[in-house]
């Protein structure tokens, strides 16, 4: 009778995998919305998602605010747990294991590699000898995932680590290359991140010293005062100066930034 009862008992449902959540800004409504499913591609131009109903969704990468990653790797989950505790060494190891696991989907492996780098950066806050490891981890990310949406962030993180490791010249070159890629219209490079890279290049150049440096000029775009001088070099904003800067300036709110090799 016991055997019959066991045979008659309903089978337990297998636990469902936790989906990813993609938070995006709708450019038409200017409101945040959420797409739930499994991220199958996380590129510089597009995010590909398979929804639970099997429907494929493509999202412009520029609209993505954040991805809350679901299940797919126990090592990735462990890395998050360790990171939340401030156990950075263990977090690095877990994320590196997830990044190197061929069974893990590529977007999650890319995220794991980047988180290994950011965890190393947190570790370097108390052990400055690890800044070199941060740069190396970023190099690994860039080599393995050259078309990832997170490439601009990894490039900026590498330059920052090089600077903190005492190599201001390498940081200057890294930030400058990042700025030039973004200002050249390459898809997937956010304008604010591009402008920030230019600023960081200027600061790193000061630290690097030498005869070659970046000169930063900033002119107000306030039409009520069109002749306002540059806030940094104090040159008057003459028509000739504005013409010189035209087309070279990543725009921020109310300010045009211009970076010229001195």
Give an account of the 3D structure.
- With 262 residues, the chain is an alpha+beta fold.
- 45% of the residues lie in helices and 19% in strands.
- It is built from 9 helices and 8 strands.
- It has a 5-stranded antiparallel β-sheet.
- Strand 2 and strand 3 (46-50) form a beta hairpin.
- Helix 4 packs antiparallel against helix 5 (131-144) and helix 6 packs antiparallel against helix 7.
- Mean pLDDT is 82; it is low at 1-15, 211-224 and 243-262.
Question: How would you briefly describe this protein structure?
Answer:
The protein has helices at 2-8, 74-85, 88-99, 106-124, 131-144, 151-164, 168-183, 191-208, 239-245; strands spanning 20-26, 31-42, 46-50, 56-60, 64-68, 214-220, 251-252, 255-261.
Features:
single chain; 262 residues; alpha+beta; five-stranded antiparallel sheet; three-stranded antiparallel sheet; 9 helices; 8 strands; 19% strand
Q: What is the fold's blueprint, element by element?
A:
Blueprint lengths: L1 H7 L11 E7 L4 E12 L3 E5 L5 E5 L3 E5 L5 H12 L2 H12 L6 H19 L6 H14 L6 H14 L3 H16 L7 H18 L5 E7 L18 H7 L5 E2 L2 E7 L1
Antiparallel strand pairs: 1-2, 1-5, 2-3, 3-4, 6-8, 7-8
Helix pairs in contact: 2-3, 3-4, 4-5, 5-6, 6-7, 7-8
Structural class of the secondary elements? alpha+beta
What is the overall shape? Answer: globular
**C-alpha termini separation:** 91 Å
**How many individual helices?**
9
Task: Sketch the major β-sheet.
Answer: 5 strands, antiparallel
Low-confidence stretches: 1-15, 211-224, 243-262
The number of distinct β-strands equals 8
**Strands ordered across the widest β-sheet:** 4-3-2-1-5
- Residue-averaged pLDDT, rounded? 82
Rg: 24 Å
Our estimate of the beta-strand percent is 15-25%
Q: What is the N-to-C succession of helices and strands?
A: HEEEEEHHHHHHHEHEE
| Helical content class | 40-55%
């Amino acid at each position: 009778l016991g055997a019959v009862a066991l045979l008659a008992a309903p089978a337990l449902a297998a636990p469902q995998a936790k989906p990813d959540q993609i938070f995006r800004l709708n450019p038409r409504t200017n409101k945040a919305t959420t797409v739930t499913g499994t991220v199958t591609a996380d590129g510089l131009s597009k995010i590909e998602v398979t929804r639970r109903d099997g429907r494929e969704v493509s999202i412009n990468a520029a609209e993505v605010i954040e991805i809350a990653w679901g299940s797919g790797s126990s090592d990735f989950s462990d890395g998050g747990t360790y990171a939340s505790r401030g156990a950075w060494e263990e977090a690095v190891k877990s994320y590196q294991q997830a990044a190197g696991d061929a069974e893990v989907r590529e977007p999650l492996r890319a995220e794991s590699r980047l988180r290994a780098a950011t965890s190393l950066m947190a570790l370097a806050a108390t052990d400055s000898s690890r800044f070199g490891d941060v740069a190396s981890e970023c190099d690994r990310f860039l080599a393995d995932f050259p078309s990832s949406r997170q490439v601009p962030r990894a490039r900026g993180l590498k330059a920052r680590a090089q600077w903190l490791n005492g190599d201001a010249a390498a940081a200057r070159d890294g930030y400058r290359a990042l700025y030039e890629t973004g200002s050249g219209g390459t898809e997937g490079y956010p304008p604010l991140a591009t402008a920030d890279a230019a600023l960081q290049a200027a600061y790193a150049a000061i630290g690097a010293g030498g005869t070659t440096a970046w000169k930063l000029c900033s002119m107000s775009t306030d039409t009520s005062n069109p002749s306002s001088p540059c806030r940094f070099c104090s040159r008057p904003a003459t028509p000739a100066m504005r013409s010189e800067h035209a087309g070279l300036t990543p725009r921020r709110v109310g300010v045009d930034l211009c970076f010229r090799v001195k």
